[in-house]
Amino acid sequence: MSQRLVFRHLLSPEGILNDCAIDVSTDGRIQAVKTLDTGRETPDYDGWFALPGIANAHSHAFQRAMSGFGERPAGEDSFWSWREHMYRLAARVDPEQMRVIAEQAFAEMLATGFTRVGEFHYVHHLPDGSRSPEMARAVAEAAENVGIGLRLLPVYYRKGGFDSEPGAGQARFVHRDLDGFLKLVESLKDLQPGIAPHSLRAVPPEELGELVRAGRQLLGEDIPFHIHVSEQRREVVDCQARYGRSPVAVLADHVSLDSHWNLVHATHAGPDELRRVAEAGARVVLCPLTEAYLGDGLFAAAEFLDLEGRMAIGSDSNCRIDAVEELRLMEYGQRLRRQQRLLLADSEAGLGAALWRMAAETGGAACGEGSHGGRIEPGARADLVVLDGNSPVFAGHGAETALDALIIGGSRADIAEVHVGGNPMYERVQADAGPRREAFANVVRKIYGETR
Fold it and tell me: Would you list the DSSP string of 19-87?
């Protein structure tokens, strides 16, 4: 049954519109966006301010279980020492535990404005080492149970490093050859997955061309490709030592970078690399909370934006899930880098509207949603985030500055409702919150009772 949703304000691709109705078809897509004649009728509003839902373009759902663990100093701590904690978690989680953890993570994502998730999934094998699609299907089941949209991104992971074989901690991630990985992807074809070579550390560059060709033959020409690249300085140094060039340059020499490619982090990419990425139409996926959590560094977002580069956001390690905080830290990181303000703002739209719209549209494209992804317009999915007009964050603000207020002082607490395909999700998510949280707590206690 089709429906109509009415909002006092909404963020459209053209800007902020007032007093609008969104007609939603039975398949959850927007049929029309209409401005109401308030002089002739008194609207019965479904909410104050509707924004397009954001696609979380990079998530490792299982890592939600390790938030707060591994925070005791043990020498010179870095991404590389944190990785050992992650390996211990990955070694133990089974399909049922994966489902429980992912449900908690996905429910938190919905509550904060993420209406779709690109799940960068690499815990492929069962705890006993046997090959099975069960781990991936547990993630898909969690997404269906919670009601969040999913773009599964099975990860090809073959090496332990540029010049090393996989270690014991990576055993559940690894496929020894491309054929084995493609068999897994084929078994998941009904989930409409993308393809994710883990990184140049884990996938020899000379295999990338065949991975792309085979992936497109199996899944279609328009599938998204995601890859970790230039996240850590040591990665850049090791890549230069092995190939004589930095990671983005090596990647671009082995595949045709285009709008199907999504470079996760790219923290230490240099000016020439950024220009190459922007000119190719590839996207960068930033995960500011995780990049700060891991001590990765700060991506040159302001310079990339000047090149007309596009950036999506992701929650990555899920140590803290909040789309608003990701956007705030994206801007604040640039302020700290450059000792200036409003580096990612638009002169007309301002800061909040520019950041939200970019994250929504770029995230939708990163998850393979096409030209309508992350937009409130006919043909797009009716994935909406509705702000709470009674929140103190918006006191004194009209529509033109409300999103600035949200980014500077707001959080997920200022969201009143989230729609996926036109369906309101808050009541559904809250109805299951108690049992979900109890199940999650039991899993975390079991896992860390065994590993500490």
Answer: EEEEEE-TTSBEEEEEE--TTT-----SEEEEEEPEEEEEE-GGGGGGTT-S-S--SS-SHHHHHHHHH
Strand partners, 225: 195, 261
Residues 312 and 384 in one domain: no
Exactly one of 316, 322, 383, 414 is catalytic; name it.
Answer: 316
Q: Is 316 a catalytic residue?
A: yes
Do 383 and 237 fall within a single domain? no
Rounded Cα distance, 151 and 215, in Å: 15
Q: What is the DSSP letter of 393?
A: G
Give per-residue pLDDT as tens, 161-212: 998 999 999 999 999 999 999 999 999 999 999 999 999 999 999 999 999 9
**Residue 189 exposure: Cα atoms within 13 Å on the Cβ side:** 10
Residue 219 in this model has a pLDDT that exceeds 80:
yes
Nearest to residue 385, comparing CAs of 408, 362, 412? 412
3-state secondary structure of 12: strand
Q: What is the DSSP string of 162-173?
A: TTB---GGGTTT
Whether 186 and 46 map to the same domain: the answer is no
Range of the domain at 42: 3-52+376-431
* Percent residues over pLDDT 70 in the chain: 99
In the annotation, is 372 catalytic?
no
Closest CA to 296 of 69, 80, 85: 80
Handedness of CA 29, 371, 353, 21 (dihedral sign): negative
Same domain, 110 and 45: no
Cβ count near 165 (within 10 Å): 10
- Give the bridge partners for 311, in sequence order: 284
Answer yes or no: is pLDDT of 452 > 70. no
User: Does residue 45 sit in the same domain as residue 163?
Assistant: no
In 3-state terms, what secondary structure has residue 298? coil
40 and 126 share one domain: no
Q: Is residue 445 part of a domain?
A: no
Query: What's the order of all strands across the beta sheet hosting 196-197?
Result: 54-59, 114-121, 149-156, 196-197
Q: Which of 121, 226, 265, 268 is catalytic?
A: 265
What is the value of pTM for the model shown?
0.96
CA distance 64 to 112: 15
What is the Cα–Cα distance from 299 to 270, expressed in whole angstroms? 10
- Count the domains in the chain: 2
- Cα–Cα nearest to 13, from 314, 380, 408: 380
